[in-house]
Amino acid sequence: MNITKIKRFAVDMAKRRGYTVKLEKGEPKEEKIAVIGGGPGGLAAAYSLALMGYRPTIFEELPELGGMLRYGIPPYRLPRDILDQEIDFLIRVGVEVKTNNRVGRDITLEQLQKDYDAMFVAVGAHKNLPMRIAGEDLPGVKGGAEFLREVELGIAANPGKRVAVIGGGNTAMDIARSCRRMGAEVTILYRRERKDMPASEEEIADALAEGIGLKELVAPKSIRKSDTGLALEMELCELKDFDRSGRRRPVPIAGAVITQEYDTIFSAIGQASDLEFAGSIETKGDTIVVDRHRLLTSLPGVFAGGDAVIGPARVVDALAHGKKAAVEIDRYLAKKAGREPHAETLEKIQVTMTLPKEVIETPMAEIPKLDPEERIKDFTAEVELGFDEETAKKECGRCLRCDVSWLTARDKSIALAG
After folding, report:
1. How many whole angstroms separate alpha carbon 151 and alpha carbon 145?
2. Are residues 136 and 258 in the same domain?
3. Which residues neighbour 300 within 8 Å (Cβ) at sequence distance 6 or greater?
4. Which candidate, 379, 352, 412, 396, places its Cα nearest to that of 8?
5. Cα 147 vs. chain centroid, distance in angstroms?
6. In this predicted structure, which of 29-43, 292-306, 334-348 has the lowest mean pLDDT?
7. Contact present, 220 and 189 (Cβ < 8 Å)
8. Are 121 and 137 within one domain?
9. pTM of the model as a whole
10. What are 248-299's pLDDT values in tens digits?
């Protein structure tokens, strides 16, 4: 079953029908909690803590909340009015927000430790990894994550007519599709084959449908300035034995080098967290070391999660870490105060599974999309149009199926709202 598209239909339907969510908050608590980062992990933690009766404070270095949801996912994939509505719902339960406030610049980690009883670090992975090739510091060679952030802030320079995007992940697809909407002819350069690209197949197909080119089995070797732009030297590769990722390893073919000129070259080979602010928190490489069961760092009362702990991952992983961190912070503070943790009294959803007697194989429904020629005209036209009710019902009928047999009234309202 196309679960993500069905979830989208359910939320759209709930909004059309005017469903509202009634939340029951726990008794107000005195302890102060700081959340570093206003992305999905930080928002989930702050929201969960607010429901428990705390009044957490989010410290966000950018002008608005959302993290990579806002500054990494373009609006044609995630409309900003929808994002704003969801964020507004989360913070209205009782969350204080301090934007344009970077920890390590505007306030130190040490000061936060003094002022707050507990802390959750959820800074995301906004820093581009270097390609480690000659010429990558030249003007016109840019980090993909930084570019997407500049596009959202409205300060991105026009990339020119000829654009290369080096990488094969979803970020590479977002950069390429954004540049296409800015009028560029874009080519994605990838060192393996299309089937090995970490981006979702749907994102790759959408990019190609929008007129974006894909050159496989090429690896960047060097960049130099030319009379008409940037000359990118690439080695042709062949696939050899399998590596630890389960994919065949690309190896340059001796003497096989090609050169292509571009106006702008984007690097999208990976991202990491900027942990300059971390001070005495124990780190390993570009991630924070935590007790994986409690998400507790090496500092008492300081918890961490999301990309800062596990590296770049899915939004749902950051959300899960945020909710888990809230539970662990509550347990930590309750133990210090000598009271029962609020999380221990929360009702749980009980789920049972039944299987139909007969299984009929039915193809997954395809999501209707805006025509490629229309969607590349600007950033505001949402690509995916959503299921109609009949299609959604048929798609749900493909499930084998997982039935929620019992829900509290509170959980029902939350489920209806998505």
Report:
1. 10
2. yes
3. none
4. 396
5. 16
6. 334-348
7. yes
8. no
9. 0.82
10. 999 999 999 999 999 999 999 999 999 999 989 999 989 999 998 999 999 9
- Residue 399 carries which side chain, given as an amino acid letter? C
Pairing of strands 218-226, 229-242: antiparallel
Number of CB atoms found within 10 A of residue 211's CB: 12
Check whether the bond before 92 is cis (ω within 30° of 0).
no
Tokens standing for residue 254 = 């001796």
- Here the tokens at position 267 are 């690097």
CA dist 190 and 201 (Å) reads 14
Alpha helices in 249-312 (DSSP H): 307-310
Q: Is residue 21 part of a domain?
A: no
Helix (H, G, I), strand (E, B) or coil at 290: coil
* Count of C-beta atoms within a 10 Å radius of residue 242: 10
Residue type, 389: E
Number of folded domains that form the chain = 3
Q: Report CA torsion sign: 126, 74, 144, 105.
A: negative
Q: Answer positive or negative: Cα dihedral of 272, 276, 277, 278.
A: positive
Kindly report the CA angle at 410 between 408 and 411, in degrees rounded to 5? 65
Last residue of a domain, one of 245, 267, 289: 267
Provide the residue range defining the domain that includes 147.
Answer: 129-267
